[in-house]
Fold this protein.
Amino acid sequence: MARYYMQLRDGTDHLLHPDGIEYADLDELKKKVLIAVRGLMSEDIKGGLVDLRFRIDAEDRKGIIVYTLGFGLAKPSVCSLSATSERVRKSLETLRKR
């Protein structure tokens, strides 16, 4: 297992996990970065403003960036919402009728 550090690049360069977190592989790291980005975006949405220029960089122990995910790339797609697609479709139809 390798240890990685998630760095929020939003003008403050905030280290999300100062001690780092160990992940089994790069795929697991990518999933956790996506969850972190979406979590931060959801908080921003509650506040009324999301800056899609922000990103999270995942760095190894040497500070080398091994993965980057920008907020603008972490938006859910229609495919990832398939379990709720019928409810979403009905909501959109209701909005269109207004």
Q: What stands out?
A: Helices lie at 26-47, 85-97. The first strand starts at residue 2 and ends at 9. The beta strands are 2-9, 14-15, 21-23, 55-59, 65-70.
